[in-house]
Amino acid sequence: MEEAEKGKNKPKLEFDFIPEESWKFNLRHILSPAAWDVVRRDAYKQANYKCRICGRGNCRLEAHEKWSFDTKRHIQKLDDVLALCHECHAVIHYQRTALCDGAEGAARAQAHFMRVNGCTQAEFHEALAKAAQKHRELNEIEDWRLDLSFLKRFV
Fold first, then answer.
1. Residue 44 has pLDDT above 80, yes or no
2. From CA 80, how far away is CA 107, in angstroms rounded?
3. CB under 8 Å to 78, separation ≥6 — which residues?
4. Are strands 145-147 and 75-85 parallel, antiparallel or unpaired?
5. Which of 79, 93, 109, 118 minimizes the number of CB atoms within 10 Å of its CB?
6. pTM for the whole thing?
7. What tens digit of pLDDT does each residue of 57-115 get?
8. 24 occurs within a structural domain
9. Per-residue 3-state assignment (H helix, E strand, C coil) for 81-110
10. Rounded Cα–Cα distance for residues 104 and 113 (Å)
């Protein structure tokens, strides 16, 4: 498959399941409230106060931490903080949405995923299964080290 073709099939909105071991390592809990406000407000400004995924404006934005995982060296690296609308954020954290908001919240998240990505219900379930498999693989590693070098720009 050609590189351009690969990128064409990549959904705009994806699930982002982090290892359960890392759930306690989020910026809102690591940083002081004032420092977290600086970081999240910068993300909103960088996105022109619109959702970075679906482009929705005139809504309450939420800050999402985008992490990458080096499974060989066990490094969890903060790559970005993204301004997202509540609906996109609910999809990204689909597991939490389903747990906290039940079947109704899960159904809303599924509908939003399908709308943003222009996909079918089968494609939604396929993407969810792939994300769940990746999540299981990341959960096998218990000693993640944090790389917060992204935050240097705020110092």
1. yes
2. 28
3. 27, 65, 66, 67, 146, 147, 148, 149, 150, 151
4. parallel
5. 118
6. 0.89
7. 999 999 999 999 999 999 999 999 999 999 999 999 999 999 999 999 999 999 999 99
8. yes
9. EEEEEHHHHHHHCHHHHHHHHHHHHHHHHH
10. 14
How many structural domains does the chain have? 1
Is 103 within the bounds of a domain?
A: yes
> Looking at the domain assignment, is residue 102 inside a domain?
yes
- Whole-number average pLDDT of the chain: 93
Pairing assessment for the beta strands 75-85 and 61-70 based on DSSP bridges = antiparallel
User: Which range marks the domain in which residue 138 is found?
Assistant: 12-148
Whether 98 and 113 have beta carbons less than 8 Å apart is answered as: no
For the sheet with 75-85, list strands across it: 61-70, 75-85, 145-147
Q: Which of 17, 9, 3, 10 is nearest to 91 (CA)?
A: 17
Q: Which residues is 146 bridged to in the sheet? A: 76
What is the sign of the dihedral through the CA atoms of 71, 73, 79 and 84?
A: positive
Q: Where are the alpha helices (DSSP H) in the chain?
A: 3-8, 27-30, 33-46, 86-92, 94-117, 121-139
Backbone angles phi, psi at 88, to 5 degrees: -65, -40
- Residue from 77, 103, 106 nearest 91 by CA: 106
